[in-house]
Amino acid sequence: MNELLKSNILKWLKTGKRYDGRGLEDFRPIVVERGVTKNAEGSARVRIGDTEVIAGVKLSVEKPYPDTPKNGNLMVGAELLPLSNPEFEAGPPNEEAIEVARVVDRGLRESNALDTKKLCLEEGEKVWSVSIDICTINVDGNLLDASALAAVAAIQDARFPGYDGKTVDYKHLTEKRLPMARTPISITVNKLGEFIFVDPSTDEEMIVDARLTVAMTEGKICALQKGGSTPLTIDEIGRMIDLAKAKAGELSVKLK
């Protein structure tokens, strides 16, 4: 089945189009909504085509990590709900959920998106801990880019809860925002045969040879994450990075 699917998709790619009519460098429609839930300090819903994810930010006062006593904590988790895709199963996070969380976390961390020093309340004792939870609503390809975009939008939306030095008041959010220093954008470029393209559908994702997720801020690369079993040449990596840089502006404008 996969070989037949691969053959058909390759036929389309050779025409410069995909079977849904898009060019190889075209994203599906992108929609970003903020403030979609009242149960988080910040939240966002992102749709890329029929792929839809929600990200929420929760803030709590905790001890800092031992190796960074002057910095706030950052954690990212992902839950792939079975109702969002028939391939997902209930239970503990699987390999794909762990990878989504890891890729999103790396883009945020390596770009220094948050000035975590400004999250310190008492060195070595109390810091703000930022937890980002990503939840899938519907998945039809390109979950990595949708999740990364939702995480950044949720951080932009987040407000600190009230805090008197002892108790956090989650019922009353202040106007103080998280200290964002940069706005990272992640673009995943996929390779099938000699072709590279962005924003794959589920069918396209099933048969790609390799993929490269490029996290950037203002055109500067912060992190790279390769997926797929096929190795990439230096030339292919360069082409994929160039395409990611060319498309970053389309996602960046959605966060303004």
Task: Give the number of domains.
Answer: 1
Task: Bin the helical content.
Answer: 25-40%
Number of helices: 5
* Oligomeric category: single chain
Describe this protein's structure.
The chain is α+β, with helices and mostly antiparallel strands. It has one domain: GHMP Kinase, N-terminal domain (Ribosomal Protein S5, domain 2). Helices cover 27% and strands 35% of the residues. The protein contains 5 helices and 12 strands. It has helices at residues 2-13, 95-110, 143-157, 202-207, 234-252, and strands at 30-34, 42-48, 51-62, 73-79, 120-122, 126-138, 159-163, 168-177, 185-192, 195-198, 210-217, 220-227. Strands 1, 2, 3, 4, 5 and 6 form a 6-stranded mixed sheet that branches. It has a 4-stranded antiparallel sheet with strand order 10-9-11-12, sandwiched between helices. A hairpin with a 2-residue loop joins strand 2 and strand 3 (51-62). Helix 2 crosses helix 3. The longest helix is centred in the C-terminal third of the chain and has 19 residues, at 234-252. The radius of gyration is 19 Å and the shape is elongated. The mean pLDDT is 95.
What descriptive keywords fit this protein?
alpha+beta, 6-stranded mixed sheet, 12 strands, Ribosomal Protein S5, domain 2, 256 residues, 4-stranded antiparallel sheet, 5 helices
Write the layout of secondary structure elements.
Elements: H1 2-13, E1 30-34, E2 42-48, E3 51-62, E4 73-79, H2 95-110, E5 120-122, E6 126-138, H3 143-157, E7 159-163, E8 168-177, E9 185-192, E10 195-198, H4 202-207, E11 210-217, E12 220-227, H5 234-252
Parallel strand pairs: 4-6
Antiparallel strand pairs: 1-2, 2-3, 3-6, 5-6, 7-8, 9-10, 9-11, 11-12
Helix pairs in contact: 2-3
